[in-house]
Amino acid sequence: xxxxxxxxxxxxxxxxxxxxxxxxxxxxxxxxxxxxxxxxxxxxxxxxxxxxxxxxxxxxxxxxxxxxxxxxxxxxxxxxxxxxxxxxxxxxxxxxxxxxxxxxxxxxxxxxxxxxxxxxxxxxxxxxxxxxxxxxxxxxxxxxxxxxxxxxxxxxxxxxxxxxxxxxxxxxxxxxxxxxxxxxxxxxxxxx
Amino acid sequence: xxxxxxxxxxxxxxxxxxxxxxxxxxxxxxxxxxxxxxxxxxxxxxxxxxxxxxxxxxxxxxxxxxxxxxxxxxxxxxxxxxxxxxxxxxxxxxxxxxxxxxxxxxxxxxxxxxxxxxxxxxxxxxxxxxxxxxxxxxxxxxxxxxxxxxxxxxxxxxxxxxxxxxxxxxxxxxxxxxxxxxxxxxxxxxxx
Lengths: 192, 192
Known about the structure:
about 190 residues, Guanylate_kinase (chains A, B), kinase (chains A, B), globular, ATP-binding (chains A, B), homodimer, GMP kinase activity (chains A, B), 5-stranded parallel β-sheet
């Protein structure tokens, strides 16, 4: 049996990774979503093992120590990471898996899975990204400027990715990613 | 303006390249079909410049001499070739072009357009291919065996291609090729 393919969907904060990933999983029921581990508290409606694997700080630190995470990061006082075991088991079973993660984390995953397919989700323009970040409503100008600077730095890392997909419309972005998944399955490896 | 992409659809004789290409062009009106030059007589319903560029033997020989053909071959006493000029103009205009050609010709095009995207159309199985060749009706067993041997040799050349697409159903094969076209447009070049 062939191993599954590892897809990583990443891009700057505010670009719409979560929304696109959700729509994609609806369209492609065979694609498995890589559930992240986190130390943050579950929100109402979130289920352990579906939205996140909810862990105590101690459990999370142990996962780091035992190299059980492909990547992890701290964000607003909480830890988030990608459990290695679930990814590896899914691929061994011959199923494709998709990771929806931040840009820095994606680059760490690339060190461990150089054969993964790395997709960078782009805003239609930087103005549009600013609007989207502003649209969340809760941020002040200083926070927005900081996020924009981070986004520009992250976009500069796009050269490390395999594909760039513009998120102009969710349906179009999904169609492009679905095409990438189909095309990658048709690819002939140079050393085959 | 970005240059268009060059796609080459190839595969063993009998695999259904022509049928798939025709269906694909219907589905993707922006894709330009590379019209071949030939010395054979037009058949009823064929139009010069649409189905083929019909040339005299002298004209064809001159095109070869002037390096106006990306590839050419003799088949049952007639010459067939791909005019370079039409391909280059289409790409310069920023439009994608598709060449539907034999395996040997595709490898010659690859020497001249290493950045082209080479798609190998595969039969679902060798038995299926034999049935399709036999299905044309006019061939005797000796001719069928010869064609099968050639097909097996051609399939061995698949490693020189970028993608393999199984022609199990025309619609599915078209969908895969359309996905390859979309994905290739999202690709980030390593040296960008």
